[in-house]
Input
Amino acid sequence: DGRYELRVPYADDRELVMDIMKYGSDCEVIGPEALRARVAAEFAAGLARYGTRA
Output
């Protein structure tokens, strides 16, 4: 189905969040929930800053 699942150990979630965000809508965090929420919050903050229109 074209999906990959990665399990990545990390120490600094800020760096991991930025790495995830560079893939935009091509990437989805499925866990842990705290990381998923952090990525969602960062994208929401970007939309709030630039507007929701593309």
Notes: The two ends are 28 Å apart (CA to CA).
